[in-house]
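ok trying again, last paste got cut off:
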Amino acid sequence: MKSKLFLTLAAGLFLAATAPRLAAADAGQQTTLTGTMVCGKCKLHITKQCQDVLQVEKDGKTVNYYLSMNKVAKDFHSNICQTDGEKVTVTGKVKKEGGKEMLVASKIKADE
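nice, full thing came through this time. structure:
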C-alpha cells in the first residue's frame, strides 16, 4: 500500500516538474499557418492600432492570430491595411497571451 502511494506521488512530482518544460518546448516550435491576413483595426475593428491578424479556419471556427509587430509583420502590413485582406502562409512561433493567440512571424508569403 505504501509503495503504491509512493509510486503515485513520485509519478505526480515527475509530471509536475517536466510539464512546464514540455509546454515551453512546444511554444518555442516554429509552425506554419495558412489563412487570410487582415488589419485588426481597419477591417476587423478589434484593435486600437493597426495590427496584422491572421484568420485561420480550425474545426469550423475562425481563429484570430494577432501578429507581434516585428519587422516582418510591419513590412507586410501595407499589403493588407484598408483592404479585404490577402491569403497568406505565415511561419513563426505561436504563444497564448492574455487569452489571445499571438504569432511572432519569421516569414510571411502571399499565396498566389
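cool. The longest helix spans residues 2-27. The beta strands are 30-39, 52-58, 61-67, 86-97, 100-110.
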